[in-house]
Amino acid sequence: MTEARPDPLARAHDCAQRFAERAAAHDADASFPAEDVQDLRDAGLLGLLVPTRLGGMGAGFEEYTAVATALAAGSGSSALVFNMHASVTGALAGVPDDLATQLGAPEWFFDVRDEMLRKAVAGALYGVAITERGAGSRLSALRTTFEATDGGYRLRGEKAVATGAGHVAAYLVAARSADADPDDDPRVSYFLVPHGDGVTVNATWDPLGMRATASNGLSLDVVVPVTALVGGIEGLTVLLAYAMPQWLVASYAAVYVGVAAATLAEAVRYVTRRTVTGRKGALAQVGFIRGRLGRADAAVEAARLALREAGRRVDAAAGDTETNRAIYRAKLLAGDAAMDVAASCTEACGLGALVRGSVLERLFRDARSGAIMPPSSDVCADVLGTAALGLDPMTGSEIRPW
Ligand SMILES: Cc1cc2nc3c(=O)[nH]c(=O)nc-3n(C[C@H](O)[C@H](O)[C@H](O)COP(=O)(O)OP(=O)(O)OC[C@H]3O[C@@H](n4cnc5c(N)ncnc54)[C@H](O)[C@@H]3O)c2cc1C
């Protein structure tokens, strides 16, 4: 008899309950939620996107969005750590072998990729290091360089933000060729760089929200083997970001839909518990407070449905024009929903929602980051507005997302 497939969503709900118990302490001192990651490991969720032939759960993008949204109900920060790991494993697992071969991937790439995915199943956590000061996450503007050395590459540069810095096994690092003309084609490429010699963590992370992500800076001066070049091909990164943006765009949406949903759930708990003028639950009797909860409910559900539709399209037809439009819609709606729901629910709940250490206060701060994570809500809106005008969404305006 074959074993039943584990239910990743049920496991994510269990993890979220434990995350919620630790979230306030990690938020207070901006510490990395190592126990939450251990819960993910124990639940097998680090292998969520890894194909079953390699021991993983073989989930697609739609299932990822449901899992990440559920995790964010317990801690937005831990869901974001998971999102970075899922982006690396999901992107690598999601490229069909024949497409990789057509693009020119060498034979060794498939073995290296499978080994890296097997390690995820065994518990290795991966992170992403793209963002730089002065470039943000605009891949074509990055200054970190790579150059060929004997049997490998030397990477040098400064990364401003990398979630899980110092706590992950390896980072997906984006760098441009030191030899290329940056105004022509900077040949931006991804490398999988293990944490270790040549990778220094800079303690820069003390932000308003999403504090428990240890998203510190990294200084890189590191030599990696030639097999660290993801795909075995230089210069694919920008092309892939335009062609198949799901892991760079809509994966964050799942986290912030979860933050928005958690805010609504917490606001409901708050107004039904709160005693005003001697009556428990008096706030729930106030019409305009119920109205705020109702609008929050609609906003969360609209963002969730847009995200689910983006996930369904990614699984059915990654890279299609309509799929990519759905991806940008999901990111925009999730960022807006998180912020609008948090602003409205805190107003409905009053000072109790703004007291340092309250759950709503943490969610309000976490929600603020959704719109600025790449591509920012303004950039997503520009992409969609350009498409609505009948122009090429990626090249039809002066804004270049990547
Ligand atoms: C909680 C958290 C975790 C993060 N984790 C990671 C991580 O693990 N790895 C990583 O690499 N990065 C990470 N980041 C960084 C994140 O990717 C950047 O904040 C983001 O790319 C924006 O960069 P920036 O903040 O420097 O803003 P800038 O790039 O300076 O942008 C500022 C504003 O300019 C506008 N803008 C943005 N793009 C364009 C454009 N193309 N054209 C015109 N205007 C534009 C937008 O309105 C934007 O809000 C994280 C950020 C947060 C908040």
Characterise the protein shown here:
There is one protein chain. The chain is α+β, with helices and mostly antiparallel strands and 402 residues long. It has twelve helices and nine strands. The chain has helices at residues 8-29, 34-42, 61-72, 76-94, 97-103, 107-122, 237-243, 250-273, 287-317, 321-349, 359-367, 377-388, and strands spanning 126-129, 145-149, 152-162, 170-177, 189-194, 199-202, 216-225, 275-276, 279-280. Strands 1, 2, 3, 4, 5, 6 and 7 form a seven-stranded mixed beta sheet that branches. The protein has a two-stranded antiparallel ribbon with strand order 8-9. A hairpin with a 2-residue loop joins strand 2 (145-149) and strand 3 (152-162). Helix 10 (321-349) crosses helix 12. The longest helix is centred in the C-terminal third of the chain and has 31 residues, at 287-317. The radius of gyration is 21 Å and the shape is globular. It starts with 7 loop residues before the first helix and ends in a 14-residue tail after the last helix. The model has no long low-confidence stretch (mean pLDDT 96). The structure holds flavin-adenine dinucleotide (FAD). Flavin-adenine dinucleotide (FAD) is lined by residues 80, 84, 127-131, 136-138, 161-163, 210, 213, 215, 369, 372-374, 376, 378-379, 399-401.
Oligomeric assembly: single chain
Helix proportion range = 40-55%
Helix and strand succession?
HHHHHHEEEEEEEHHEEHHHH
* Fraction in beta strands: 5-15%
Shape: globular
- Let me know the average pLDDT: 96
Q: Calculate the terminal CA-CA distance, rounded to whole Å.
A: 49 Å
Radius of gyration: 21 Å
Structural class: alpha+beta
Low-confidence stretches: none
